[in-house]
Design brief:
Aspartate Aminotransferase, domain 2; 376 residues; 7-stranded mixed sheet; 14 helices; single chain; Aspartate Aminotransferase, domain 1; globular
Amino acid sequence: MHPKELLKEGLLDYRRTPIERESPEQRGYKNMRYNLTESSVRDTKYTDLKLDIEDLIFSYTGHKGDLQLRRLIADESFDEEEVLVTTGAASSLFIAATSLLKPGDHVVILHPNYITNIETPRAIGCRSEYLRLSFENGFRMDSEILEGLIKDDTRLVSITYPHNPTGMNITREELVEIVSIVESKGCFLLVDETYREMTFGTPLPVAASLSPRAISISSMSKSYGLPGIRIGWLISRDERLRERFLAAKEQIFICNSIVDERIALSFLKNKNLLFPKIKDHIITNFGIVKSWMENSAFMEWVEPGGGCVCFPHMKSGIDVEKFYSILNEKYRTFVGPGHWFEMDRRFMRIGYGWPTRDELEGGLGCITKSLEELKV
């Protein structure tokens, strides 16, 4: 059925995207020697958490999420009632989009972006307009351009910082300005904050703390290395929105897995011991990537300001298809090619938080070898 016909029938126009079809889970990890595709840190082991769940009863959990868990997420900035725990950040993004948007609504989306931020409004049938970041402009977001894109009927502005896939960040002052623009226009701001704590400097404030029109979304997946437990959250100070978001969650999956919530709770209770090690690993590996970029004759980039990914660009004169063929087939090394993000394949997302130091150095070395072979 044609997408327009789907929408006429009231059906969401779901489609699979390259980033899902070509993900390491689909390719098979055993087929990869060096995996530089991941947009998270190294997966946490069960034994690292010293978790005791022998007393756990496999019951339903509170529909908003475990109270202790919500209190830890809320920290000192929010009340636990302002936090909704969800099945990963992806479901938070889906809940927000389907609760706020209807076919024909106008949305402004930072581009490139995490695919759910783009695909769910598209599937609903929204009029999506992109605030496009460019390599030539240092992947910098221009607030004046943003303001110009917002129309009288704009319902939602969707951004993510630190940014995926570029690793770029904005200042607190820039975030405050964006919130001010959204408030003046009467729309909502969705901020995907998955990488907020990975900022190399001082993290941005949680956007929802700045306005009831700002919705903050994050998860245990990227910064904490717990993608397998599927725990994320949505924060809002708008009571009516929270009630709608909760209703959506209850209709989709009622509550979260009690096992997943217990694991998330255990990690956050020990976060002061666990997260510094993760942050040190990110900083160390970023230094390796930075040194490699500075010495590369084939690559150029805009240096990231946070996160665990970067988005370098192959210089002109390189046969892109041959490069990926050599890299994938000969060296069994994989990156996130630009088309995963609806960008030119000369771009590649390199995830430097997931691999060990040796794996990262080996993978970067294989990228260099693949490029050098094209020049022989």
